[in-house]
């Protein structure tokens, strides 16, 4: 047995090592755990082990933390949509690029996307973020429509409902996918894309038992 | 102009017309809007326009409201799974029955399922509900495995991740589907099932442009 057992634990004091990125990451985890409204700056300070004034050194308000956190999810998604617009392939190829990139961003920005997906639209900031999210639904729906016109996608599927169903499957990844889980991120991306494009029944009916 | 403008508004008093079902429905809408933890019995009483003691006439506690609300979603889902177990068709047919029934229950019990899907697992009651939900994931994953063994489902898809992706698409319906929306409930069910089983690319590649 070591004598350190008897040593009094160090008193909690300000930890000067935090940068804004770390403060943001820990804040987002707290928002996701307790809800944004229920997470006070005092609670955040406790969680970071720093004083409230030390948090205000990093960001002027809780709403600024929310804005920064939502941008962590929205900016990469919007930049991906810009790439889709400039992509010179068929609508079908652009659709695949859109869906694959979304899976990657969701895995990389999991906690930030979770926050975005749970927004209720209670404030102007939240409503603006939700509107940016709806713009992505419209982009995806438009891409489905163009791919149908090109003859590469079946035409019986209603484009807006299809866009919602596609995002539904892909967005669910933030709720259940863990990096230490049963499949790695690349396999997950390939399986989700293949499931969406080819379905559970990949083979013609007459080749199955 | 009517002279009623000058009349003092009636004092708030108990509305004897509520039954437990209505109280439950309004409570669930409040839980979904503000979050369960942030919805006090006082807030609920305001929303119902009745006194707190009138709510306690219907249910002994807020947690009982949560239990009743979660059962509104869980009991039909578990009863559907019982039907799947007794179903005498192939695993493929049982899988389709499972997914179709889930879409129907989600549309019929939308606000209750929304509450279930947003649970964080903060209390014993919430953890029990989440465990009942995980049991459904396992049932679906097992059904995918059996359908793969039967040779009716492609074998390259990892069953647990596939079950999560299938539920991801279908559960999303509670977030976006509205009865007055672009497609009716039966069309939505058919389109979601067809998308999942046959994919976006329904035709063989050589038949597309």
Automatic annotation (TrEMBL), chains A, B:
Keywords: DNA-binding, Transcription, Transcription regulation. Residues 17-77 form the HTH tetR-type domain. PROSITE patterns: HTH_TETR_2. It comes from the Bacteria. Residues 40-59 bind DNA. It holds the Pfam family TetR_N. This is AcrR family transcriptional regulator. It comes from Glutamicibacter protophormiae (Brevibacterium protophormiae).
């Amino acid at each position: 047995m070591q004598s350190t057992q008897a040593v009094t634990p160090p008193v909690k004091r300000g930890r000067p090592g935090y940068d804004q990125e770390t403060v943001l990451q820990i804040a987002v985890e707290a928002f996701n755990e307790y809800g944004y409204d229920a997470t006070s700056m005092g609670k955040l300070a406790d969680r970071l082990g720093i004083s409230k004034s030390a948090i205000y050194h990093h960001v002027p308000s809780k709403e600024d933390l929310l804005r920064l956190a939502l941008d962590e999810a929205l900016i990469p998604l919007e930049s991906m949509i810009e790439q889709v617009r400039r992509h010179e392939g068929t609508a079908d190829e652009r659709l695949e690029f859109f869906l694959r990139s979304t899976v990657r961003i969701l895995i990389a920005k999991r906690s930030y996307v979770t926050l975005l997906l749970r927004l209720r639209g209670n404030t102007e900031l939240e409503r603006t973020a939700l509107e940016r999210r709806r713009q992505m639904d419209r982009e995806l729906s438009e891409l489905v429509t163009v791919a149908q016109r090109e003859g590469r996608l079946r035409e019986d599927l209603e484009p807006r409902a299809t866009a919602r169903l596609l995002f539904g499957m892909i967005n669910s990844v933030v709720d259940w996918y863990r990096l230490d889980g049963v499949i790695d991120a690349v396999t997950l991306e390939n399986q989700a894309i293949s499931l969406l494009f080819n379905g559970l029944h990949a083979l013609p009916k007459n080749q199955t038992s």
